[in-house]
Amino acid sequence: MKAQPPASHFIDGAYVEDTAGTVIESLYPATGEVIARLHAATPAIVEQAVASAKRAQKEWAALSPTARGRVLKKAAEIIRERNRELSELETLDTGKPIQETIVADPTSGADAFEFFGGIAATALNGSHIPLGSDWAYTKRVPLGVCVGIGAWNYPQQIACWKGAPALAAGNAMIFKPSEVTPLGALKIAEILIEAGAPKGLYNVIQGDRETGPLLVNHPDVAKVSLTGSVPTGRKVAAAAAGQLKHVTMELGGKSPLIVFDDADLDSAISGAMLGNFYSTGQVCSNGTRVFVHKAIKEQFLARAKARTEAIVIGDPQDEATQMGPLVSFAQREKVLAYTEKGKAEGARLVTGGGIPNTASGEGYFVQPTIFADVTDDMTIAREEIFGPVMCVLDFEDESEVIARANATEFGLAGGVFTADLTRAHRVVDQLEAGTLWINTYNLCPVEIPFGGSKQSGFGRENSAEALSHYSELKTVYVGMGKCEAPY
Ligand code: NAD
């Protein structure tokens, strides 16, 4: 098999197998071919992973932050050296075109290790608090063993975005990739060992919705960071609350992208296409409700249609391919059901809406799709599709569009395209979301915090802010005189 790893799990610095676990087949989404056969973690594997992480965390936390940072920066260097090989694996794992994975996946993981490796020595300082002759100080301390649970759209990036801040702060991590894309995280675990991390500091175990709870409910796990859907988020948060564990929730969205009539039209169309078609639309922060001012709507649609129909769909391993398949058969069924619903509920199909005939019948391809005349009550305007389906809605008035943009349970992201600087800031100020873009879309460099509000989650990834979600403050009051008591 094309991408079979030596074993399913990576624990304590080595590949480990337990064939008693349920079989997980990894399929290449462009052909449906089985590329690896793995096993979900059994309770014995989970225990092994937790025990080894506990041991490693103590050793790791005792190092200076500079020494920890050095290991993380080394890992970043190795990831960059192997970008091609890791990107090829990511393409097999997800079906995303090599044209994308080579610039967006291992490299953004390397950015995370480089960034957190770089700030470890300076961003974890405590403070000194003068109290007359007494004084106090604070220390930022790690939480212990943290669990990362990933989605299937950015497997390597998620493994790094969770691992890098967790490790920088002095924690160990057990990462469970999505059962749909189990391969990339194993390579990240291997690389960390090569970079000098202690054995057990970053373990990877495989599994699905049955395995996740074994980790979340484990009494030796201090924190869970999930990237996934809102229903899964509710379950994981509820389980974690049972033991008052720390949680970060990176969940789904149905984000608004507002295009005013003074916007640079080509730039706005680029933003809308990036925010709907990149990674075959499987991006949580996508601007899937594109509100376009009535005055420019037809022009917007005509140009967006022409550019969309020129997208090169096909073999993800071909450098010229711009759009690959969806990640799985189930995901394609879901996306096609939504497009049928869009048609049935009266949205105007501008382009796409089915399966492209460029594909040989194999693989989970769909056409990039644009619907116009979408109204707020339509299912395609309310639910997260997670596929390349752009819904264009009309508006005329600024306050009306803000109210409509906010009329959703989600609050992950949003964007505005306008030439009016004042309006841009006024509008984003009123949009209820964790991450907002002005005159661009979906750029998430590691320097800026990323995360959602409302039902899209809480906690932030990336930026120095992420360290506060992987550590806690310890306060020490220092009495300099005699201790007085009233009795
Ligand atoms: P999912 O919710 O089905 O699964 C996510 C992960 O949770 C998987 O690893 C799965 O095995 C695990 N899981 C499922 N049930 C669990 C349980 N009860 N306890 C513990 N773990 C459990 O999501 P998905 O289909 O893999 O990914 C798509 C979703 O992820 C979309 O909604 C998307 O918006 C969201 N997403 C969010 C972000 C973000 O940063 N906000 C990024 C990528 C994807």
Automatic annotation (TrEMBL):
Q: Which Pfam families match?
A: Aldedh
Give its E.C. classification number: 1.2.1.8
The family this protein is said to belong to: Belongs to the aldehyde dehydrogenase family.
Q: What is its cofactor?
A: K(+)
Catalytic class of the enzyme: oxidoreductase
Q: How does it assemble?
A: Dimer of dimers.
Q: Which residues does the record give as K(+) 2 binding sites?
A: L244, K454, G457
The protein's job, in short, is: Involved in the biosynthesis of the osmoprotectant glycine betaine. Catalyzes the irreversible oxidation of betaine aldehyde to the corresponding acid.
Output one GO MF annotation. Answer: metal ion binding
Give the catalytic activity: betaine aldehyde + NAD(+) + H2O = glycine betaine + NADH + 2 H(+)
Which residues are the active-site ones?
Answer: K162 (charge relay system), E250 (proton acceptor), E250, C284 (nucleophile), E461 (charge relay system)
Annotated binding of NAD(+), by residue? G150, A151, W152, K176, P177, S178, E179, G252, C284, E384
Which named protein is this? Betaine aldehyde dehydrogenase
Positions carrying Cysteine sulfenic acid (-SOH) are: C284
According to the record, cofactor stoichiometry and binding are noted as: Binds 2 potassium ions per subunit.
What gene name does this entry carry?
betB
Residue span, Aldehyde dehydrogenase domain:
16-476
Q: Native species of this protein? A: Rhizobium straminoryzae
Q: Where does K(+) 1 bind?
A: S26, D93
Q: Which UniProt keywords apply?
A: Metal-binding, NAD, NADP, Oxidation, Oxidoreductase, Potassium
Q: In which pathway does it act?
A: Amine and polyamine biosynthesis; betaine biosynthesis via choline pathway; betaine from betaine aldehyde: step 1/1
GO biological process terms, alphabetically, are: glycine betaine biosynthetic process from choline
